[in-house]
Each structure stands twice: as structure tokens, then as C-alpha cells.
Amino acid sequence: MAEPASPDLGERLAGVRDAIDTASRDAGRDPSDVTLIVVTKFHPASLVRDLVALGQRDFGENRHQEAQAKVASLDGVDATWHFIGQLQSNKARAVREYADVIHTVDRESLIATLGGVGRPVEVFLQVNLTEDPARGGAREGELPVLAERVLSTPGLTLRGLMAVAPLAEQPRRAFERVRLASERLRSIVPDATALSMGMSGDFADAIAEGATHLRIGTAITGNRPTPG
């Protein structure tokens, strides 16, 4: 018989869920419209099992090699896997074999690599909110072309936009920019209504600006183990 999850883990998960509920109601939103993705990067598969036992179903991973092994070791576990790290084109097809949702699509070549093979995958277009071209994500002006490319690519479904708030900008302002970009994108893809934004320190601001998917790690999992 598996060991029960630690009380601390359960308390942290419940605390974040309560905070999400409160932020949603403060924003005039239904808390059930917000999906909590627990980021389990660097944590063992046993933590995922503990979270599943506590009722959590959505999990996020950043690194392909770690994610691939972790998902394989959890075969049969009732979980939805979200890939939320920067995705190299040469690993894209391997990632789509286990990821149900990919949040970091930001270029046409990646869309072409992801499409047309294997099981259907949901994708988000990542928006770069900084002036640094080395950061992951597309510029807002590139989104219409990328959206059209996803629409014309078999095997992919466009859910919406993903972004990370820059350190130099107030999170609420950054998330407002993503919300406005999403409103413009929906003139092309009306069903692309989802917004993947908000992490442990800023998810209340993200909810206020319409976030539908939150990517929260340490507030629930605690400090990450040192990566091997």
C-alpha cells in the first residue's frame, strides 16, 4: 500500500486552491473556470502520485528528458500532462508522444514538426512580453500567422495564449497585455479563449485578467530538490 501524502503537501495544495477560489470570486469569475497545473519539475514521480491521491490531475513539466521518464513511470495514473518549458524542434515529436498540452509554441517550424503525427495535442501560443528576442515566445504581431498555421495543421488544437510576466513589469499590467492580445486573436480563432499565465507569486493578478490555466510549483510542492 502506498504511503499517504504528507500533511504539509495536502495543506499547501488546499491553501492554494482556497486562494484561487478567493481570487476568482473577487474577479467575478467562477473558480471552476480556472485550471490549476502543479509544476513538478525536479520532483520525483512519487510526489505526483501523492498529489493525484489528493485529487490533483494537471501537472506541468519543463524538461523533456525528465518529463519523458516521469510520465512513463506513471503509466496508468489519471493525469493530464502539460509541457511548459522551451521546446527544441528536435525534441518536439518526442514531447507530443506524452504531453497532452504544449504551452510554448512560438514559431512556424515548431508547428510543422508537431503536426500531423500521433495523437491530437492541444497547444498554446507563447507570447514574449519582453524586448529580449532570446526569451521564449513570439511577438504579438506574429500571433495571427502562427494561429492560422495551427488551424491548418492536422493533429493540433489551439487553446489560446501563454505568457510569463517579466520581472521588470507589474504582473497585472503584463497580464492585461496578454488578455488584450487574446481578444484580438479571437477574431481569427473564436475558440482560442484560454490564457495560460500566473505562477506562485502572481496568480491572483493573472486570475483578475482572465487566466484559465495557472502554473504553480513551489507554493504547493515546496522547495525543489537539487537537480541531478
Describe the structure.
The protein is built from nine helices and eight strands. With 228 residues, the chain is an alpha/beta fold. The chain has a single domain, classed as Alpha-Beta Barrel (TIM Barrel). The chain has an eight-stranded parallel beta sheet with strand order 7-6-5-4-3-2-1-8. Strand 4, helix 5 and strand 5 form a beta-alpha-beta unit.
Any key phrases for this structure?
228 residues, alpha/beta, TIM Barrel, eight-stranded parallel β-sheet, 9 helices, globular
Structure, briefly:
The chain is an alpha/beta fold.
List the helices and strands and how they pair.
Elements: H1 7-26, E1 35-39, H2 45-53, E2 58-61, H3 64-73, E3 80-83, H4 92-96, E4 101-105, H5 108-114, E5 121-126, H6 143-151, E6 156-162, H7 171-185, E7 194-196, H8 203-208, E8 213-216, H9 218-221
Parallel strand pairs: 1-2, 1-8, 2-3, 3-4, 4-5, 5-6, 6-7
State the low-pLDDT regions, or none: none
Tally of separate domains: 1
User: Per CATH, which architecture?
Assistant: Alpha-Beta Barrel
Q: How many angstroms does the end-to-end distance come to?
A: 28 Å
- What fold name goes in the CATH topology slot? TIM Barrel
What is the H level of CATH, i.e. the homologous superfamily? Alanine racemase
